[in-house]
Amino acid sequence: AMRAWVLLSAVLWCLPGVECPRSTLFNTKGFIYGQPGHPEKIYVKLHQNSPVLICMDFKLAKKEVVDPTYLWIGPNEKTLTGNNRINITKTGQLMVKDFLEPLSGLYTCTLSYKTVKAETQEEKTVKKRYDFMVFAYREPDYSYQMAVRFTTKSCIGRYNDMLFRVLKKILDNLVSDLSCHVIEPSYKCHSVEIPEHGLIHELFIAFQVNPFAPGWKGACNGSADCEDITNHNIVQARDRMEEFFRSQAYIFHHNFNKTLPAMHFVDHSFQVVRLDSCRPGFGKNEGLHSNCASCCVVCSPGTFSPDVDVTCQTCISVLIYGAKSCPTSNQQYED
């Protein structure tokens, strides 16, 4: 019952609009001290080592502690002992190596120590409990939604479709070495009335660019955190495309004495918006994880994420962290 209360209080502690510190004290050396009565929320990137969790609050750590003993309980409610993944020191410091989804959850440490009265040597045992809610997270996968406009002579005819296909091919070739490609391209032709220029026809072109072109895993070089590489590649792809359309505007402005082609890029029409997605088993939740709002945090028990959506959905029969499916389909609905 106590562990259930701690889990609930950890959820309620960070409500929308209430600032929630990632930890009470997280110094430059990567140590996190506990705080009695307040479960600390800690976010550990997938496959990285956790910070060092200290079974003591910062105030007590500055004092003399007599005969201290430390008892760590893990997310599975079993006593933790040191192994090749979990490191526990004699002074009660805990670190988890190569953090994975199932390692998420409540880590509890009970500190027992003695106070000794100098006059009588009377001893008294004191116990303090420290709770740490630890969550695996990963960076979201980036993609970009882009839009551009080109002038055209008419909304009727095959040249519009030809321009559209040629442009897609140029953009694909521009970023193919980054394992990126253009997806979901579309265009519509509209009549636009421009002050002092009258009515002209324009193609409104939209497309997405993502870093998952066929064979993209080859760019990972065996890296476990491949989103770091794919995100780096897609940002480069965005920059290249932005430069490409900027060069089109440059050509437009430096050919004003010459005859412009009937179809040309409309200056300042390039628009770009970043789209984030999370891998299955992860999602964003600004209310619950306000201090890691941009992160894809592992789905908690009672939720799951089967695809690359950005939210975990509710499923009361899920009992694990990082669930990718819901055992009972009629319990699925968005959180």
Automatic annotation (TrEMBL):
Q: To which protein family does this belong?
A: Belongs to the zona pellucida-binding protein Sp38 family.
Q: Which Pfam families match?
A: EGF_Sp38_C, Sp38
Provide the Ig-like domain boundaries: 21-127
What name does this protein carry? Answer: Zona pellucida binding protein 2
Tell me the superkingdom of the source. Answer: Eukaryota
Entry-linked PANTHER family: ZONA PELLUCIDA BINDING PROTEIN SP38, ZONA PELLUCIDA-BINDING PROTEIN 2
Report the locations given in the UniProt record.
Cytoplasmic vesicle, Secretory vesicle, Acrosome; Secreted
Database matches in InterPro entries: Ig-like_dom, Ig-like_fold, Sp38-bd, ZPBP1/2_C, ZPBP1/2_N
